[in-house]
Design goal:
The chain is α+β, with helices and mostly antiparallel strands. It has one domain (about 5-155). Helices cover about 25% and strands about 40% of the residues. The chain has four helices and nine strands; from the N terminus they run E-E-E-E-H-E-E-E-H-E-E-H-H. It has helices at about 45-55, 95-105, 160, 165-180, and strands spanning about 5-10, 15, 20-30, 35-40, 60, 65-80, 80-90, 110-120, 130-140. It is globular. InterPro entries: Peptidase_S78_dom, Prohead_protease. One of its GO terms (biological process) is proteolysis. Pfam families: Peptidase_S78. Keywords: Hydrolase, Protease, Viral release from host cell.
Length: about 180
Amino acid sequence: MDLEHKFCRFDTDVTVVEGTRIEGYASLFGKCDQGGDVVARGAYARSLKRLLAEGRAVKMLWQHDPAQPIGVWEQVREDERGLYVKGRLLDTVAKGREAAALIEAGAIDGLSIGYRTIKSSKDDGGRRLLAELELWEVSLVTFPMLPSARVAAKGEDRPEDGGLHALAEALEGMRLNLAGD
């Protein structure tokens, strides 16, 4: 099987702190991307456990280029929303400094995962449900797969800080209640 890439952009979920620290979600569970794929909860669990047992880490790359590592992911884990990543861009690497500047300027706003599909299935709508993935890397990219999301630069409000996330959840709950009547 070939290495696949999933380009994701997240609405103020990835931030640059102190010029080099970044964190956010590299993948969101249950969201259909432009390629018709949906990542299931738990899809990364075995891969992350295997990497830990082998003393290896998920790589942080620039535009999926294995010749351009730009930092390190210090934390990669699944939670109820998706694949959370936290790390730092290396300011001793020219491309790492460039990536930090581009994120802060809003010129780069995407994350993308590099992975191999282990288990998947198709739903009635033709979407591919990704049940198990072997995660290789998480890259900073120009063109993400989820168009409604973006990376936040240092100083921008994050949804959980600004209350927008809670408002969105409340509106969605109201919409579901109205649809059920």
